[in-house]
Design a protein that fits this description.
Layout lengths: L1 H13 L26 H11 L4 E7 L5 H13 L4 E7 L12 H18 L13 H11 L12 H11 L1 H11 L3 H23 L4 E7 L11 H14 L9 E7 L3 H4 L9 E5 L13 H12 L4 H5 L2 H11 L3 H14 L9 H13 L6 H13 L10 H9 L3 E6 L1 E6 L1 H17 L5
Parallel strand pairs: 1-4, 1-5, 2-3, 3-4
Antiparallel strand pairs: 6-7
Helix pairs in contact: 1-14, 2-3, 4-8, 5-6, 6-7, 13-14, 14-15, 16-18
C-alpha cells in the first residue's frame, strides 16, 4: 500500500506546472519534429537577435501553460552558446501588479528596476560592479531632480519603498502615473540613459563585442478582474501599440512576452517590432479533426518523462484519450492526470473508463457554465476555425476566451483556432438548443 501511495504521490508532484531548463530530462523538444511543426518560434527569435547588428525588440506570446517560460529558457541557452552573449531573464511578475491597468511610466520604471536587480544578483553579469547605483536609487533621484513629490513614501530607504509600493499598492502606482504624466519624455530618456550605461558597464567587464539580451517574462499575465478586465486589456494594448517607440533600448536586444489576444485587439502591432512569435498548443488533432500521430507521440514522451503512465492507465489508448480531450494544452493534460492520480489513491490500477470519465467531468466543470450567447459564438469558432469576430466591441470577450482557454491556438503553417475539446460538444449542443428555441420566443 505504501508503494502504491508513493508512486501516485511522486507522479503527481512530477506533474507540477513549472518552467524547465532545456537540459532537464523532463523537457521535450517539440520543435525538432518536422511532422509536428513547420517552424521553431524560438529559433526565429534567436536569429533576429543574432542578425540585428545593434539592438532589437520582439514580442513573444503563448497561452499560460503551453511552455512559454520553458521555451524562454531554451532561448537563453541557445543565445548563451554564441560568442560573448549575456542573457538577462527577468520574471516581471515580481515587479508588476497583474490585475490593474499598466501605464508606460511605471512599466518603464519596473523594466529598468528588474534589469538592474538581475545585473546585481548575477556575478557573471555585473554583480558588485552594479551596486553603487541600481535603478531604484536612480529613480528616487530622478523624482528629486524633477521636483516630483510622493508623500506616501516613508522611511530612509526610498528606493526600496518605491520598488515594493509600485507592485503592492495600487494607490501609490496611480499616484506615480499621475505625477509622471507630464514628465514622460524625460523619464523615457532617463531610462534609456540608464540602460545604455548598463550596456557600457557590461562592455567594460566582458569586452566591447558583448551582446546583451533582456528577456521579460510574465508580462502576458497582466489581466484584470471581472470588474476591470476591459480597462486592463486596453492599457496593455496602449502600452505595446501606442508606446512601441519607447520600448526599445540602446544596444539591447529585448523580448517582451505578451498575451496571445494582443495581435487581434491591436491589429498591426507586430509591424512595430522586429519580430513577433507565438507558442501554439501541441496538435493532438489536425485541423481536419483527424488524430495527429506526431502530436500524440510527443505528448506520450512528455508524460513518460514525468512518471510511469502505463501503471496508471494501462493501454496507450487511455493515454491518447486524455491527450485528445486536453487539446494538446499541457496544463490541462497535467490537471487531468493529477485528478486521476488523486482519485486512484484507494483504488486499483490501471484506472478504468469510469474513473477517466469522472476526471474529464471534473476538469470540464471548471469551464462551465457558459452563457447561451457565448456558446453560439464558440460553436461558430469550432466550425470555421476562425475567431468569427463581428466587430471591435467584442474584442474584450474574445480576449477572455483566450485567457480562460475556452479557445486554443494551433498552427499548420497558417494559424487556426479551436474550442477546447473538453467543452466543444457541450457548446455545440447548447448552441443548437438555443437556435431551436429562439424562433418560438416572442
Amino acid at each position: 500500500m505504501q508503494r502504491h501511495e508513493a508512486y501516485l504521490r511522486d507522479f503527481y508532484q512530477a506533474l507540477a506546472d513549472q518552467p524547465l531548463e532545456p537540459d532537464d530530462p523532463r523537457y521535450i523538444a517539440f520543435y525538432n519534429d518536422a511532422a509536428l511543426t513547420s517552424a521553431d518560434p524560438i529559433a526565429s527569435l534567436a536569429r533576429t537577435i543574432e542578425w540585428s547588428p545593434l539592438e532589437s525588440k520582439q514580442l513573444f506570446s503563448g497561452f499560460r501553460g503551453t511552455g512559454k517560460s520553458t521555451e524562454l529558457r531554451r532561448l537563453r541557452k541557445m543565445l548563451s552558446a554564441g560568442d560573448n552573449t549575456r542573457v538577462v531573464l527577468c520574471n516581471m511578475e515580481e515587479y508588476l501588479n497583474l490585475t490593474t491597468p499598466v501605464d508606460i511610466s511605471d512599466f518603464l520604471v519596473s523594466v529598468a528596476g528588474a534589469f538592474s536587480d538581475e545585473l546585481q544578483r548575477d556575478r557573471d553579469l555585473l554583480g558588485e560592479d552594479m551596486q553603487h547605483e541600481g535603478y531604484w536609487t536612480r529613480f528616487a533621484s530622478f523624482l528629486t531632480r524633477t521636483r516630483i513629490e510622493l508623500p506616501s513614501l516613508s522611511g530612509s530607504d526610498k528606493s526600496t519603498s518605491i520598488k515594493v509600493s509600485l507592485k503592492a499598492d495600487p494607490t501609490f502606482r496611480q499616484l506615480v502615473q499621475d505625477k509622471l504624466r507630464g514628465h514622460l519624455g524625460t523619464l523615457a530618456a532617463d531610462v534609456r540613459s540608464f540602460m545604455e550605461q548598463c550596456f557600457k558597464a557590461m562592455c567594460a567587464r566582458h569586452g566591447g563585442d558583448v551582446r546583451v539580451v533582456l528577456l521579460l517574462d510574465s508580462v502576458e499575465r497582466i489581466r484584470g478582474t471581472s470588474l476591470n478586465a476591459e480597462s486592463v486589456a486596453a492599457s496593455v494594448e496602449n502600452l505595446f501599440q501606442g508606446h512601441a517607440d519607447k520600448l526599445g533600448f540602446p544596444y539591447l536586444h529585448v523580448v517582451y512576452t505578451v498575451p496571445p489576444w494582443l495581435k487581434i485587439k491591436a491589429p498591426g502591432v507586430a509591424a512595430l517590432y522586429d519580430n513577433s512569435q507565438q507558442i501554439p498548443c501541441v496538435k493532438a488533432r489536425d485541423s481536419d479533426g483527424a488524430r495527429c500521430p506526431a502530436g500524440l507521440n510527443a505528448l506520450e514522451r512528455l508524460i513518460a518523462q514525468r512518471g510511469d503512465w502505463q501503471r496508471l492507465l494501462g493501454e496507450r489508448t487511455a493515454l491518447d484519450r486524455l491527450c485528445l480531450v486536453s487539446g494538446g494544452y499541457l496544463r490541462d493534460l497535467f490537471r487531468l492526470l493529477q485528478a486521476l492520480l488523486r482519485l486512484s489513491s484507494d483504488r486499483p490500477l490501471p484506472a478504468d473508463n469510469e474513473r477517466i470519465d469522472l476526471v474529464e467531468h471534473e476538469i470540464r466543470n471548471s469551464y462551465l457554465p457558459i452563457p447561451n450567447q457565448h456558446a453560439i459564438w464558440l460553436a461558430r469558432i469550432q466550425t470555421t476555425q476562425a475567431t468569427e469576430l463581428e466587430d471591435a466591441t467584442r474584442l474584450h470577450q474574445l480576449a477572455r476566451y483566450f485567457d480562460n482557454h475556452l479557445v486554443l491556438a494551433y498552427r499548420n503553417g497558417k494559424e487556426w483556432w479551436s474550442v477546447h475539446p473538453l467543452i466543444s460538444d457541450y457548446v455545440a449542443r447548447q448552441a443548437e438548443r438555443n437556435r431551436e428555441r429562439r424562433p418560438r420566443e416572442p
